[in-house]
Write a structure and sequence with these properties.
Helix content is 26%, strand content 39%. With 379 residues, it is α+β, with helices and mostly antiparallel strands. Helix 3 runs antiparallel to helix 4.
């Protein structure tokens, strides 16, 4: 038993020594695997375009329907006067304004007195008239005398013809002087140094270039007034070149005013101007509209143009559309509580239904209230 015990002790000591040697040979270096940091668990960020909810039954779905509709294009425009119905008020006499009977924005009638001008042109025109009248009287007497002498054989026929020619010239000068007074608005029997200027048409004064005591220069200066017939007005719209195929001359357009939202006015596309604005790539489209009296110059309007052929479009409740970051979105159901936020392009609105030009097809399932799901997701 003793020898066995000694051998066992010797074996144990040898193992201990070997373990120490191995530790020394390792140099006391740590085990990299043992000292590595714990593995990081990465949580996936929420993806708003594809996610899952725990209780999808809280968000009812609707089926995307289909509707045949005429495509519509909405653009903005401004009310302007029809320049073919704008008539300048002209004072043929130059002088100083002594009285103004109307002003900018007034509604006037044809023949209404607008202003009075004190002018030296009147005295010159009247002097010319009086001189022409005297010359014609003398020429007429000379012609009568020549006719009497010619009948007695006292003068030659050439002398009679000369007297007749003088009388004709004097008559022409008198007619011209009389017409000049008429154009100036002067009564030849009661001349005055003040010229009255009347409205040439009925309408609204849309421009005024004079004030009291200001001067007018006749035909060489600016017109004192401009009168516009506003029974018809122009709507000038800007249409992007990509949308010009939806606009055709001769077709009708719907006009809506911000001040009268419940009224729709009909207009006819009169012209599409051939020059594009190089900065914003738009063309001017002119619409002629009968004015019932509520359209004011400078008003902003919305014009709606309609296509020629109906198209099929998806239709959803207006509540299914979420307007976010200047875009329109719907929540498309993928099944199993999964939803996808889908961008769409909205079109016209008919009551509580919204037309969708692209992004959906009939038969798709979308969340009926996109705002409720959006709020739930954000929480």
């Amino acid at each position: 038993m003793r020898p066995f015990t000694a051998a066992w002790g010797w074996t144990t000591g040898l193992c201990v020594m070997l373990a120490c040697c191995l530790g020394a040979c390792n140099g006391g270096k740590p085990n990299p695997a043992a000292e590595a940091p714990p593995q990081v668990t990465v949580e996936q960020a929420f993806n708003p375009n594809n996610f899952q909810v725990d209780h999808p039954e809280l968000f009812p779905l609707v089926t995307v329907a289909e509707r045949k509709t005429v495509p519509a294009l909405n653009v903005t425009g401004v009310v302007q006067p029809d320049i073919s119905r704008a008539v300048p008020v002209i004072s043929l006499a130059a002088g100083r304004v002594v009285e103004i009977k109307a002003r900018l924005g007034d509604v006037v009638s044809k023949g209404q007195l607008l202003l009075r001008v004190q002018s030296s042109d009147v005295s010159g025109a009247y002097q010319t008239y009086v001189k022409a009248q005297n010359d014609e009287r003398l020429a007429r007497l000379q012609l009568q005398r020549a006719e009497l002498l010619f009948s007695k054989g006292a003068i030659a026929k050439s002398a009679l013809e000369a007297a007749q020619d003088t009388e004709d010239d004097a008559k022409a000068d008198l007619d011209a002087a009389t017409e000049q007074l008429r154009l100036l608005g002067i009564n030849k029997d009661h001349p005055s140094g003040v010229v009255d200027v009347f409205a040439p048409i009925s309408g609204v004064i849309t421009d005024q270039e004079i004030t009291n005591a200001s001067g007018v220069q006749g035909l060489s200066g600016p017109n004192p007034f401009t009168i516009s017939d506003l029974s018809y007005v122009w709507i000038m719209c800007d249409v992007y070149e990509n949308d010009l195929d939806a606009v055709h001359v001769g077709e009708t357009a719907d006009i809506r005013l911000a001040g009268y939202p419940n009224q729709v006015f009909k207009g006819r596309i009169d012209n599409i101007l051939p020059i594009l604005d190089p900065s914003i790539r738009t063309a001017k489209v002119r619409i002629e509209v009968p004015n019932p009296g509520v359209m004011k110059i400078g008003m902003f309007v919305t014009a709606t143009f309609y296509g020629r052929q109906p198209v099929s479009r998806a239709v959803v409740p207006a509540t299914a559309i979420l307007h976010l970051h200047d875009r329109d979105w719907v929540y498309l159901a993928l099944g199993g509580g999964h939803f996808k936020r889908q961008e769409v392009v909205g079109a016209g609105i008919a009551g509580d239904m919204q037309e969708v030009a692209s992004g959906l097809k009939p038969g798709d399932q979308v969340v009926q209230s996109a705002l409720e799901l959006q709020n739930a997701v954000e929480q």
